[in-house]
């Protein structure tokens, strides 16, 4: 097997679909196939592919259930999954995205579309694997830093423009972080930052999602293929989880806590839009949340 080729697992019980997809992708990738859910779950565990293309309508258990299992398993949750199906339904598409799929391709296949979307997600995989080599990890929190975020935003922005898809961003800032440091000390402040980074990362469930430390006590979560409603749900989940979190102080007894404020933007960017304005809007909404009393989510719905 060529070492410079990425591997793709195609899951479908129709031989014709397997043949078509293998023909499209084999010149560029190492393509493997599976014809059942059982074979799929075994293959991804024993020899994890770089990407999975999976039909959700096959004999046996529901395909969405298989997707859920893949995303709940720590060993396989990082593998991007593109749903392939003959069901042209917005409800199914939304369900797939909510369960962690990164894309949705309907049958009959259009060769350029299939290849373009696979190439996009392989590019993301390649980029994420380069992070450590390029020094794109924040050394304190062990999550992507601002440089990594900017690079990833560039990739997702161009894809959103090209495919006319929603892109959402959460800009988050810790409330009264200076007071926390003054009260408990900077080492405890570092513990707090690490704890919150885990919460943010857990909320960025899909491989294309990215949580990053933007700088100081500011963090961001980028959510491709995510409309405002879903982005607000994720933001509120993060806000409530942070509010409920208790971080033990150095004395081993005192429970400390903190809150965060979040600015949320979502749009389908056009060719005349630029990422800098997108981020600037999120920043303004973040400070509107601060001005409104902190510990809250503020979105473009709140703009006047």
Could you characterize the architecture of this molecule?
The longest helix is centred in the middle third of the chain and has 20 residues, at 111-130. The protein has helices at 15-25, 37-46, 63-72, 90-98, 111-130, 146-163, 177-184, 186-203, 228-244, 275-291, and strands at 7-11, 30-34, 51-55, 81-85, 103-106, 167-174, 210-215, 218-224, 247-248, 255-256, 260-267, 297-299. The chain has ten helices and twelve strands. It is α/β, with parallel strands linked by helices. Strands 2-1-3-4-5 form a five-stranded parallel beta sheet, sandwiched between helices. A hairpin with a 6-residue loop joins strand 9 and strand 10. The protein is 45% helix and 20% strand. It has two domains: 7-130, Response regulator (Rossmann fold), CATH 3.40.50; 146-302, Reverse transcriptase/Diguanylate cyclase domain (Alpha-Beta Plaits, 2-Layer Sandwich), CATH 3.30.70.270.
Topology:
Layout: E1 7-11, H1 15-25, E2 30-34, H2 37-46, E3 51-55, H3 63-72, E4 81-85, H4 90-98, E5 103-106, H5 111-130, H6 146-163, E6 167-174, H7 177-184, H8 186-203, E7 210-215, E8 218-224, H9 228-244, E9 247-248, E10 255-256, E11 260-267, H10 275-291, E12 297-299
Parallel strand pairs: 1-2, 1-3, 3-4, 4-5, 11-12
Antiparallel strand pairs: 6-8, 6-11, 7-8, 9-10
